[in-house]
Amino acid sequence: MEACKELKTKYDHCFNVWFSEKFLRGVNDDSECAALLKVYTECVAVSYSAEFTLHIFLFNAMKMRNN
């Protein structure tokens, strides 16, 4: 999702730092990136929903045009 690219980059960076500096050293608390993950997944959900709505609209418009 292009609309969420910046959020994905921020989350990926947070995750990679957490994974290498904490998880691999035995710290299993993954809450420090949780807020970024939530915002990113919400962005993806909204983007997919908007894209799906657009596809339905275009499908119906084409269907009406052909009738």
Automatic annotation (TrEMBL):
One BP term from GO: phospholipid translocation
Catalyzed reactions per annotation: a 1,2-diacyl-sn-glycero-3-phosphate(in) = a 1,2-diacyl-sn-glycero-3-phosphate(out)
GO cellular component: cytosol; mitochondrial intermembrane space; nucleus
Entries under PANTHER family matching the protein: TP53-REGULATED INHIBITOR OF APOPTOSIS 1
The UniProt record lists the keyword Disulfide bond: yes
Protein name listed in UniProt: TP53-regulated inhibitor of apoptosis 1
Keyword entries, A-Z: Disulfide bond
Protein source organism: Dufourea novaeangliae (Sweat bee)
Pfam family, one: UPF0203
Gene Ontology molecular functions: phosphatidic acid transfer activity
Record family assignment: Belongs to the TRIAP1/MDM35 family.
